[in-house]
Amino acid sequence: MELKIAILSDIHANREALTKVLKDMKGLGITDVYCLGDVVGYGPHPKECLAMVKNLTNTIIAGNHEQAICNPDMNMHMLNHNAQAGVTHALKQLSTDEVAFLSQLPSSLALPDHNIFLVHGSPIEPKTWKYVSTEADAKEALAATTAHLCFIGHTHVPVVFGSINGLFKVLPDVLVLDPNEQYLINVGSVGQPRDGDCRASYGIVEIGENITTFTLRRVFYDIGKTEQEIQEAGLPPFLAERLYSGS
Ligand code: ZN
Fold first, then answer.
1. pLDDT tens digits, the chain, 247 residues: what are they?
2. What's the gap in Å between 49 CA and the centre of ligand 1?
3. For the chain: N or C, fewer Cβ within 10 A?
4. Ligand 1 geometric centre to CA of 38 (Å)
5. 2 Cα to the center of ligand 1, angstroms
6. What's the DSSP call for residue 144?
7. pTM
């Protein structure tokens, strides 16, 4: 059977961005949705975004912001003050049940049927939230998994790294994946992109009988609306400013 899987990461409580991504997904024939964590944090709508994601999929990985929310005493000091403000806001919004739901999410997931590995930061010790930023990081990370495809988020920068062909600096519209090559794929961030492109980012992997492809989707959304919601929630203005520059 042909599979067309949408992979979303780092939604960061940006309801406006997530709504537009869901709209973009409609009519594409998506068969499955995976979420790589950081549904909450930074943004104004953690509760609404969590409900929207739960409605889409059961395949949800925990990110470092989920971890901070579930264990604020232990983890708050690891976050900068903007991130702390997001966690504090989320803790006010989320119910006990919702926090309990977040606390049982896995930090990684292997899907052997599809030869896929899902993790928020890096397959190397998922719970230490390593950043895969350089080609050397990517190489090391890929060596930590045997899966054909390893999907990650965390840096908010979309990128594809292949074990044979290295870094794909400019992604083609549709990247045909070589069955003999292992790939580490960062799908970017729905709610707070940091690659200089302010559009929401997510990925689609299409697994056919003879060919597997990866497509990165970029979606415009109303940043002004999110900015207003950030102000209304009393969150730091920087969290809105960075959305315009995608940084
Ligand atoms: Zn994040």
1. 689 999 999 999 999 999 999 999 999 999 999 999 999 999 999 999 999 999 999 999 999 999 999 988 888 888 899 999 999 999 999 999 999 999 999 999 999 999 999 999 999 999 999 999 999 999 999 999 999 999 999 999 999 999 998 888 777 789 999 999 999 999 999 999 999 999 999 999 999 999 999 999 999 999 999 999 999 999 999 999 999 999 9
2. 14
3. N
4. 5
5. 30
6. T
7. 0.96
